[in-house]
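Sequence in, structure out. Go.
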Amino acid sequence: MKKLILVFLFLIASAFASDIKVQVLGSGGPELNDNRASSAYIIWVDNKSKILVDFGGGAALRFEEVKAKIEDLDIILLTHLHIDHTADLPALLKASFFSNRFKDIEIYGPDKGLFVPDTKTFINRLFENKKGAWEYMGDFLDGNAQFKLQTTVIPFSKEIKTIYDKNNIKIKAISVNHGPIPATAYKVSIDGKSITFSGDMSGKYSTLEKLAVNSNILIAHNAVPKGAQGVAKNLHMTPDIIGYIAKEAKVKNLVLSHRMLRTLGKEDITKKEIRKYYEGKINFAEDKSIYLVQ
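Output:
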C-alpha cells in the first residue's frame, strides 16, 4: 500500500514539474574559423528563456535563432569576464530597447583579479553615464530605462554559496581556477533537477566536483586536448581531469562545450581519456544543441 501511495505521489509531482532544458547557444571559444559562437548557454523553463550563462561573441544571433525572448530573462550568470564569455552583452541589452521588457535583470559574476575588475565595475565601465564605453546606455544603470541592471559580485570562495533562491530556482556558486582570472562555476537547480556549468577552469582548486555532485547535467569546457602543457593546462581542464570530476560528482550526463580548434577532430581521444574515470553519458556540444534535464 505504501508503495502505491509513493508511486501515486511521484506521478502527481511529475505532472506538475517544470519542463527544463539547457541549450548551448555558443559551443566555441575565442577563435575565428571554427564556425561556432563563443560560450553561451540558456536554461529554458516551461519553454521560456529564463537564465543565461555567459554571452560571448555570436551569442546574440543564436539567441534570436532559437527564438528566445529578452522579456522572459530573469538572470544572467557570468562565469568570468573574458571577451569570449561577455562580448555580446551590449548587443543583447541594446536589443531589449525594442522589446516589451520592463522587469529588472539580475547579473551575477566574480570579484576582481589581477587583470580584470569585479563584475559590477565591469558592467559600469560598459554603460555608465559619461564614463562607460557605451555611455548612451547609462539609463540601464540609473533607473531611467524601461528596466534596470542589478549586478551582484560573488566573492572568491572555495566553499559552496547559495546566491539565488526565488520562484523555485536555486543557484549555487563556487570559485574555480582559471589561472590569474577570477572564475565562478554555477549549479542551477529547479524542481529537484540541476545543471552545473564549469566555465573555463583548470581543476586545481578541486571545487567543481563538490558543486556538481549528483547533477543531471554537467557542462564542462573541453578547450584543451590530452597532453596539453604550459599556459593551456594552467587555464583549462584536460580530458582526464574532466572525466575524474564527472566521476567524483556522479553526474548523469556530461556535455562537452567550449570546443576549440585544438580539440575538434580529437573526440575519440578525448572520450577515451574521460572513460578512464567516467562511465555515464557523454555529448559533444554544437551550437544550438539542446538537452532535456531529466
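Check: Residues 108 and 177 are 18 Å apart (CA to CA). DSSP finds ten helices and 14 strands in the chain.
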